[in-house]
Amino acid sequence: MQIALWILIFLATFCFMEFMAWFSHKYIMHGFLWVLHKDHHRKDHDSWFERNDAFFIFYAVVSMSFILYASNSEFWYGFPIGFGIMAYGAAYFLVHDIFIHQRFKMFRNANNWYAKGIRRAHKMHHKHLGKEDGECFGMLLPPLKYFKTK
Hints:
Elements: H1 2-32, H2 34-41, H3 54-71, H4 78-100, H5 113-126
Helix pairs in contact: 1-2, 1-4, 3-4
């Protein structure tokens, strides 16, 4: 029974992180921490790293904190929560940084309905270079309007 609960908590955390991606993108990245996120929209640097990468570090620290706390206490729930956050971060990095922004030259020829929808949604978000007016959504499940059947 504990394994089923572990899996349920892991999956719930992974899904909750899609909401957190939307929330932090809309209200934090395009809000009071725009100073860290704007170089993701406007390439004002020559470095491979962006100030925007600080958000990955924040969520990695949160994930590791849950795992470390769980390993040093009776709070076993910290393991599926921490690993759920970590799995979402890995999926986000794979889709956003590797597939969409090509930080590593992989998956360039992916052309299925999901790949096209993700690219279309992200392109519409990056159409706006400023802090305001950019549509914000989670990364793994953008609005269905971007998944055209044609």
